[in-house]
């Protein structure tokens, strides 16, 4: 396993380059890039087909930087400088535990003040270059795909908050015992929490800019499937705990790699399992006592296939909402099936058979997806 990018580089090239990046975080970033690409391509395609339309926006040009703009830029610069300079001055500590530094109050005041002044000055000079004696209003055309930068930021913010909220609900007992640690940790993220909250933020912004919710949902279906697949690569490579139940069964095929059937996740990032003899990877020196189903890699394979399927049929789907309905069904079935062999916290309510949070939500997704497909097909002429 590769808990950090440094471990990955050492495995590939044999070089020891200390970097403060964990593997999971890097793949989350790559997942956002993949989603950004897919969303953008769909927005452009739908605009070319006349389904989505550019809109006019009035802006004021020639204004100098306002006090609030200077303050916000200065505040942003202070936060970056406060953490960045401290991290550089304590680089070994930053490499070994970047999360504790980023989420703590530790920082460098001088570095913060210097970058605050630099950011504020940069904003002032940029606005001053284009300043007019009398600011003027101008009308610009905004294409739907040009909203993506704004959409991706809000999706990331609300997606992270939603993922943390749903994860803490799922592991409520642990949250009650360690509330601060769980709130400030970058680990422990629930996909469906991120999907629900991040998706809601995207729909709100899209609607404010004239994009109908069903059209925006259709745009997002393939992209979310692709982003999920890429993100799960990070889960597998880092060993973040999203693995399956113990698998002591013999391989069904001799040619199947051991790591694809039953895996102990050595050097996993969550420190689960037993110590690895002779390990020199610091705090990443544990592996599971027994091999488990490597469910993240199963999801990577399945979701890439499902993305390819959704991408291939997008030109054939005409009814608004149908694409997202199909995505909901496929996503729900995939996740429900993987939950059968995945380690997870189970709920015991009303005498029902034990079930996980993901099983419950995926069931709602399947039922909701079927309902949305029926609704879209029955009202395709009204919704267009």
TrEMBL record:
Entry keywords, A to Z: Cell membrane, Membrane, Transferase, Transmembrane, Transmembrane helix
Entry keyword annotation includes Transmembrane helix: yes
Bilayer-spanning residue ranges: 20-39, 70-89, 101-124, 145-163, 183-206, 296-313, 360-377
Protein's UniProt keywords contain Transmembrane helix: yes
InterPro entries: Lgt
Homology family: Belongs to the Lgt family.
Protein name (Swiss-Prot/TrEMBL): Diacylglyceryl transferase
Originating organism: Pedobacter mendelii
